[in-house]
Amino acid sequence: MMDRLVADRDTLVAVRGVRPGGDDAAESIARAAWSVLAEPGDTVAGALIEALGAVEALTLALGTSVPRTGAAVGSELAARALSEARARWRPRARPGDVRDALCRARDADARLILPGDECWPTAVDDLGPGRPSALWVRGDPELLVRTPRVAIVGARAATGYGEHVAAELAGDLAATGAVIVSGGAYGIDGAAHRAALGVEGATVAFLAGGVDRAYPAGHQRLLQRIADEGALVSEPPCGTAPTKWRFLARNRLIAALGHATVVVEAGWRSGSLNTAGHAATLGRPLGAVPGPVTSATSAGCHRLLREYDAQCVTSSAEVRELWGQSVAAPEDGAHDPDRVRLLDALSTRSRRTVDDLARRSGLATDRVLSLLGLLGLEQVVDVDEAGWRRVPTPAPR
Amino acid sequence: MMDRLVADRDTLVAVRGVRPGGDDAAESIARAAWSVLAEPGDTVAGALIEALGAVEALTLALGTSVPRTGAAVGSELAARALSEARARWRPRARPGDVRDALCRARDADARLILPGDECWPTAVDDLGPGRPSALWVRGDPELLVRTPRVAIVGARAATGYGEHVAAELAGDLAATGAVIVSGGAYGIDGAAHRAALGVEGATVAFLAGGVDRAYPAGHQRLLQRIADEGALVSEPPCGTAPTKWRFLARNRLIAALGHATVVVEAGWRSGSLNTAGHAATLGRPLGAVPGPVTSATSAGCHRLLREYDAQCVTSSAEVRELWGQSVAAPEDGAHDPDRVRLLDALSTRSRRTVDDLARRSGLATDRVLSLLGLLGLEQVVDVDEAGWRRVPTPAPR
């Protein structure tokens, strides 16, 4: 089965760095195959892979038998879903397609990232059976797990006001260590990526098509720069064209990856509201930048404030407040209970000495000092002669 | 005591239309006297009047004895408060001052409105002991009890954007029957009043000083026009100069009178936030108009969205939604349970026939038809060949 799909294991070595043969190679090829067979967000594929593993799921997908075991795929309903899904997948199971995807990835210097990899963003696992089975990355995959990450998205047909605000927010946040996640589109997305690159900050662009395809074409240079200095990521394999569906599916990854999502400008029916909806569904903090009520390009943001319970954000400090909670417990294994305890011990109103904080938090003085240093770099705390405090919301400029 | 304060009962006839002598005259004079003696929001005066009635309260206030009865004024703490309050009130108990206030009111064609009067706005009674003991009104006092009423306030140093939005909202709302309540100030207040007058709508200006004093001076013509076509209202008597304190105290009346308060533009520390705070404290719906985050004059509005849980409003329809609840049960006796039942029977999603609405509401068909006519005028409902529905939130223009 595997051999029918991919004949060139050497290409896999280039893309994944794995030795030919062995379980890892089989899993890699199976997941690469799944990214070719299934559209993004195919929850039947997700459930199947979850239940059986990618290799066995692939065998089942391209076979004809109904699985005998496994609660997730055992019911009559699941059997019908599987039968329908097979009808979707089969037409794509053409010999050479997976090999082509791998060859294109090799040529574009793209990597295949799988769940379990060090740089797999476990944040996207919150999507459940809709999570991607693999991600294709050009650039630095480590950015996918660096924290904090903030999604800054918005209208393609942005105004000068919107692009200005997007650039201010993204520049400030990137300069202080946040990874700016967006969709590589014209308008707000482009302004956010550019501002991050402009301060030599980190930025990740999720594309709706393959990472080897520059879309939109007018962003060819920007996307190349993101591949060189940040990361271009996509769920469909190299060579895939972007489609309406893939844009919508891509939006869920942006929302899932961000510790918070901020919509800077959006029309009443903007695609950015789709990203915002995913963020809200995933329980990610959602911010919206207000604008003139006379501007149609801010109508979607005002709608988010009214209907989606979005937080009104007007400055990078207010964006940082959004993710304050979620970054205290990042999901990439760097969870630090000491940090949570120290944050609990800090006040925004009264400044406290290191000794006082050590007492309140029950941490050693040295530990408090080193954590305060980190929190200071993140601008979560500041210090003067009276002591340390959590930085409160500043007045908008 | 009364005679020491007011010698000219004929003036009272001109101001109140009461016959000289009798309980009403005594109460009127006592309350006029209280408006001279006590600053707005003097809760000791309010509690005393509440407990003893205005006449006896005045006797006590200007005497030296400690009241023997009355839980509200009997405790040691209350006795101390009374002693301090007497020290505030005595310097103002000058012979002739109340007469002067009445004479000025007569000359300015101002009326004295008391609790219990038909046009007393019971909405301000929500202020408890801080409610005004009387109000001085130039113009049509009936506007104080007409519904719905919406407070539209904001920055004196408004931008063209803010004045434009204030005028759009106030004009739309006044044209459909809402009373526009504001503070007569430059900027947003003035734009709101002018727009209401421009559509021959109703508007009420609360002044911090006496209603015979045009403040600000540059609004002399506007305030005169409001007195002629709407209502100028103040708590301090004629001849009183506006002070910082009186501006703040005046703000609570604007918030109390409005079924909803909308802040159109406000700086980070704008006085409009004070009005908004009163509205929130009183449980009145609070709306804020967003603006560019780059505009310092919108920073207060964004603060209201973030910190006061204000609703983001971008159109007059969204302002109407704010007071939807409170106007369904107005406090001036015009409460109509049939209207509430019909509104319950209407849907925003599906259109319903008159027969269906009659069945759902349990109202007679004729009654349903006449109420639908009224609701149609208020733009609460609309109709097409499929039937009637509640108008949903439209897209912002």
Automatic annotation (TrEMBL), chains A, B:
Name of protein: DNA-protecting protein DprA
Source superkingdom: Bacteria
Domain Smf/DprA SLOG, residue spans: 112-321
Family matches, as NCBIfam families: dprA (TIGR00732)
Boundaries of every DprA winged helix domain copy: 328-381
Pfam families: DNA_processg_A (PF02481), WHD_DprA (PF17782)
SUPFAM superfamilies documented for this protein: MCP/YpsA-like
